Amino acid sequence: AQSVTQLDSQVPVFEEAPVELRCNYSSSVSVYLFWYVQYPNQGLQLLLKYLSGSTLVKGINGFEAEFNKSQTSFHLRKPSVHISDTAEYFCAVSEDNDMRFGAGTRLTVKP
Amino acid sequence: AAGVIQSPRHLIKEKRETATLKCYPIPRHDTVYWYQQGPGQDPQFLISFYEKMQSDKGSIPDRFSAQQFSDYHSELNMSSLELGDSALYFCASSLEGGGDEQFFGPGTRLTVL
Q: B97 pLDDT band (50/70/90 cuts)?
C-alpha cells in the first residue's frame, strides 16, 4: 500500500522568505499526488495536484511542487511566504482512489 | 460552484451516546469517503462508498457504520461513543474516473464529554 512521509513536522520561517515543505512517498504503481492546506479550525483545501504530464505543478496562493519520480518526492515550494500562509500542510498520495495522508507540516510564518 | 456539505458542523455528545453525521457530495459525484482527524493528527481513512455500495474500508471501529443513499448522500453512524472519538470528521467526494481527486467538506467537529 502507498504511504507518505513528511520529513518536517514544523517549519518556522520569516515573512517574505522562501520555503520548501518536503514530502516523499512510496508506492508500487503510478500514483496521484496532492498537497492540501488546513487553516485553524477549517477543512482541507486543495493547493495543487499532480496527475500526469508536466512534473512542475503550480497551485493556488503562489505555491508550486515538483514531482520527482526517481526520488519519489513531491516537495512543495513558495518563493516568498506571507503571514497568512501559516497553516498545516498535508501531502497525500492516492492509488485507485485510496488516499493516504502524511503526518502534516506546520508552517509558521513570523513577521 | 457547489461543494461538499457536512452537517452538523459541530456536535457535542456524552460517552455511550450515539451520533449521526451527514455528508452531501458535490452534484454528480458518485463516490464518498469518510476520514477521522484526531487533534494534531493527519486524516485517517475510515470508509468509502461508490454507487451506494461500500468500496473500501479503513480503520473504522466496529461501533461505527455508514451507508450511501440513493441520492448519493452518506451518513456515518457512531454508537457507544468514547472520549477518544472526539475528532474532526471529514467527508470527501469524487467522480469515478475523475483522476482520484477528492473534494473535502468543511468537517464535523465531534466532541465527546
A: low
Full DSSP string of A47-110: EEEE-SS-SEEE-GGG-EEEEETTTTEEEEEESS--GGG-EEEEEEEEETTEEEE---EEEEEE
B26 and B3 in contact (C-beta within 8 Å)?
A: yes
Q: What does the pLDDT read at residue B70?
A: 94
Nearest CA in chain B to A49: B101
pLDDT tens digits for range A17-44: 999 999 999 877 778 899 999 988 788 8
The three grid cell numbers given for residue B16, joined into one nine-digit string: 455511550
Contact B26, B103 (CB under 8 A): yes
Helix (DSSP H) and strand (DSSP E) numbers for chain B: 0, 11
Query: CA of A82, closest CA in chain B: separation in Å?
Result: 23
Peptide linkage before B8 cis (omega within 30 of 0): yes
The shortest CB-CB distance from B106 to any of A43, A95, A96 is to A43
- What confidence score (pLDDT) does residue B2 get? 76
